[in-house]
Amino acid sequence: MLRVMGPLTCALLGAALLGAAEREHGNVVAADGVRIAWEARGTGTPVVVMVHCWACDRQFFEPQAAALASDHRVVTLDLPGHGKSGAGRARWSVTGLGADVAHVVKKLKLDRVVLVGHSMGGPTALAAANLLGERVAGVVLVDTVHDAETKIPGEALERYAATFEADYEGTMRGMIRALFAGQADPALPEWVLERALLADRKATVALLRSFKDVDNSKLLAGAGVPVRAINAAPLPPAIPETKTEANRRYADFDAVLIEGVGHYLQLEKPAEFNAALRNVLAQIARAGQQHPLR
């Protein structure tokens, strides 16, 4: 695990040294009986709930959770089908994962929450915000929802899902490598692949197909809170342009772009990402207790 070199190694080692014994661990049981593993540390508001990407787990936010725990309550979780959570689910959907996140927030009695979602975790976090009402102060999207008005055709998703069914590991390897910028530590894509291959394959393929039903414009409009994005600068063809004006049609939205990174920007440049995250958390905090769009 820690053979990954560079900033990620430093961040993970730092987290291990800074209060690993102070972490709380637990499980919440979803309505359908699937176990959801969570971890919490730190104190302070707003409470930051971090939602990982597709075929990832809560370790993908470890550099951020370790840093933010000095002055925030930070909760990370493994979405069903990922990490240490269960996978015995009949129907998989991104909005269903949003209900899982909302369930964890309610069970842990969290209030004044900012949901941070990377990639698939972005629409998942927005779906949770739609369900949580006044508990949520804001949402931070991480390299996701670049253009809320873009929908992926179901036929394209079906073809892509079929490539995973034919050669899961090979397709996953090719996808992950395409999502990194050229200057990324070469060990980092291997670490991401290692973690990705631990996810439940039935769940990940089903979730991939479910993106045909995701309407990001509706999810943005329904969140009713400030939404900020920390995205990678465009990296064609893997990372599209962030269409800030389009997204502002549906929410109080703004975006920060980080240069020289790929899709896993929070791991590629954790210090720069953490500074940007603290800045948007401060913006959301200044918005006060009232949610202007509610």
- Strand % is 15-25%
Query: What's the CATH architecture?
Result: 3-Layer(aba) Sandwich
Q: What does the average pLDDT come to?
A: 92
CATH homolog superfamily: Alpha/Beta hydrolase fold, catalytic domain
In the CATH scheme, the class would be Alpha Beta
**Alpha plus pi helix count:** 12
Number of structural domains? 1
| Low-confidence blocks of residues | 1-5, 15-19, 289-294
Cα distance spanning the termini = 43 Å
Number of DSSP-assigned strands: 8
Structural class: alpha/beta
As a whole number of angstroms, the C-alpha radius of gyration is 17 Å
Task: Explain what the structure shows.
By secondary structure, the protein is α/β, with parallel strands linked by helices. The protein has a single domain (43-286), classed as Rossmann fold, CATH 3.40.50. It is built from twelve helices and eight strands. The chain has helices at 7-17, 62-68, 94-107, 121-132, 154-166, 168-178, 187-196, 201-210, 216-223, 244-247, 265-268, 270-286; strands at 24-29, 35-41, 47-51, 74-77, 113-118, 136-142, 227-232, 253-258. An eight-stranded mixed β-sheet has the order 1-2-4-3-5-6-7-8, with helices on both faces. Helix 2 links the parallel strand 3 and strand 4. Helix 5 (154-166) crosses helix 6 (168-178). It is globular.
